[in-house]
Write a structure and sequence with these properties.
Elements lengths: L1 E4 L6 E4 L11 H25 L4 H19 L9 H6 L5 H4 L6 H4 L7 H22 L1 H22 L9 H16 L11 H20 L5 H17 L7 H29 L3 H12 L3 H14 L4 H13 L3 H14 L4 H13 L3 H14 L4 H13 L3 H14 L4 H13 L3 H14 L4 H17 L2
């Protein structure tokens, strides 16, 4: 046995079998020092375990979205297919109202959704990305990034599509994806969490897939997605790292919040100026609702003179002209609306109808051919073509178009009735009789269908040899 004096406490102790000859402390002091060196590591592990299972911010965000959706349904809004008017009533982004002073819509629109599928997909994405962001960045940084990205996406969306009702959490969710990309890429994550390249790859796949999907699906605003994504990338780059001191984090977050507020305010003001005139449409629409058509017409003429490329204003102007019987002026305004938004099929159909009302059937046919080419599944384009051919007394061509409309919309009496009329005009009485017989069988209480069948039957009998 070898006796030594402890260098820490001064007590003598004996070296036992297995103890190193280099030991200078007694076993009690060695144990205390070992525990002291392991304490910080134990605290970091406890903090990680305590932090990972709870996600109050993500849960709260999902709950608010679900609550708004539940209130909408409870108030009579369709659970599967709400109308744009429904969304606007509950706070969706809409240019005339947002630019008209209702700036709160930039925030409320983040919590409004158009149906169960819309909110279901968004909440699934938020639950997955939100928990990762909340764990990696901390709750305050996560909440700041979510709202800054979401508000900026609303601004981009209302600027790009000022006359569309825009809503949903997808812009903020894309913002979270962008935040995570730059935050992880710049290695700002907590030191005890191992974040590898697979995580960045998954985020990249998510972003790419959803952008492609949004481009392929009508009604999805990729402008909002891109706006949120870009702002998220920037915010993630300027947020403080997880390893910074608490004082440094607070200072950095305060600076980021201030700069974000300035950027969002400047973006909103810039969007409003670049879309000058959109806010006026709300007041003009109110005048039309109040039957002050002369005052509304004067304001629209002034607005379109200043901004001839504002398609919505031109279309409203055309509608007022038509109501007043000023068809030439109405057609001219409708042509400008179509030129400003050539992909707007509603404007194209209205222009085709206007041409038909003026007896300009060749022009109507040209317009409706474009409509059919753009959307071959819309029966209204074929109906318009059929009416135009009827105007030119080209009944065989009209019958062909009406048959297409009937095939696309077999449960509506209108296309079948017009098909029968074209067959009667063409002298195809037996075909007309058969068309109206089917119509009566499908709609037995429709008096117009019964009268048409009686007429077609008499014509068939009269023409029989």
């Amino acid at each position: 046995m070898t006796v030594r004096r402890c260098a820490t406490c001064g007590k003598e102790f004996e070296l036992r079998f297995g103890d190193t000859a280099l030991t200078v402390n007694c076993p009690t002091c060695d144990l205390q020092q070992w525990e002291a060196t392991q304490a910080p590591l134990a605290q970091r592990a406890s903090a990680a375990v305590a932090d990972s299972p709870t996600f109050p911010i993500t849960i709260a965000l999902v709950a608010i979205n679900a609550l708004v959706y539940a209130v909408m349904v409870a108030r009579g809004v369709s659970a599967l297919d709400p109308t744009p008017r429904d969304g606007i009533a509950f706070g969706a982004d809409f240019g005339p109202l947002t630019f008209g002073g209702e700036w709160w819509r930039l925030v409320t629109s983040m919590f409004v959704h158009f149906g169960a599928i819309h909110i279901g997909l968004n909440m699934w994405c938020l639950w997955n990305l939100g928990r990762a962001a909340e764990r990696l960045m901390g709750r305050i940084a996560y909440l700041l990034a979510y709202f800054v990205s979401g508000i900026f996406s609303s601004i981009v969306s209302v600027y790009w599509h000022p006359m569309a009702a825009s809503a949903g959490a997808s812009g903020a969710i894309f913002g979270l994806a962008g935040v995570l990309v730059s935050y992880v890429y710049l290695k700002k994550t907590p030191s005890h969490l191992q974040i590898n390249k697979n995580f960045l790859g998954s985020l990249g796949t998510f972003i790419f897939f959803n952008l492609v999907y949004g481009a392929a699906r009508p009604g999805i605003s990729n402008a909002a997605h891109l706006g949120g994504l870009v702002m998220g990338l920037v915010v993630g780059a300027v947020l403080p790292a997880a390893g910074d001191s608490e004082d440094a984090k607070r200072t950095r977050l305060s600076i980021v919040a201030a700069l974000s507020a300035i950027a969002l305010t400047g973006s909103a003001v810039g969007a409003q100026r670049l879309q000058a005139g959109v806010g006026e449409l709300a007041s003009i629409q109110e005048l039309i609702t109040q039957h002050k058509s002369d005052e509304a017409l004067a304001k629209l003429e002034e607005l379109t003179a200043r901004q001839p490329q504002m398609a919505t204003a031109q279309a409203m102007l055309a509608s007022l002209y038509f109501k007043k019987g000023q068809f030439q002026q109405g057609v001219a305004a409708m042509e400008k609306a179509c030129a400003a938004e050539p992909k707007n099929l509603t404007y194209q159909q209205q222009l085709g109808t206007a041409y038909g009302s003026l007896g300009q059937f060749d022009k109507a046919i040209g317009v409706y051919r474009k409509v059919v080419q753009e959307d071959p599944n819309d029966p209204r384009g074929f109906l318009g073509l059929g009416y135009a051919y009827m105007g030119l007394q080209q009944y065989d061509s009209a019958i062909s178009q009406f048959r297409q409309a009937v095939a696309l919309d077999p449960n509506s009496p209108g296309p079948q009735y017009t098909l029968g009329q074209a067959q009667l005009k063409a002298g195809r009485y037996a075909e007309a009789q058969e068309t109206y017989r089917k119509l009566v069988a499908q709609f037995p209480s429709d008096p117009r269908a019964r009268a048409a069948l009686d007429y077609a039957s008499r014509q068939t009998s009269a023409s029989a040899p």
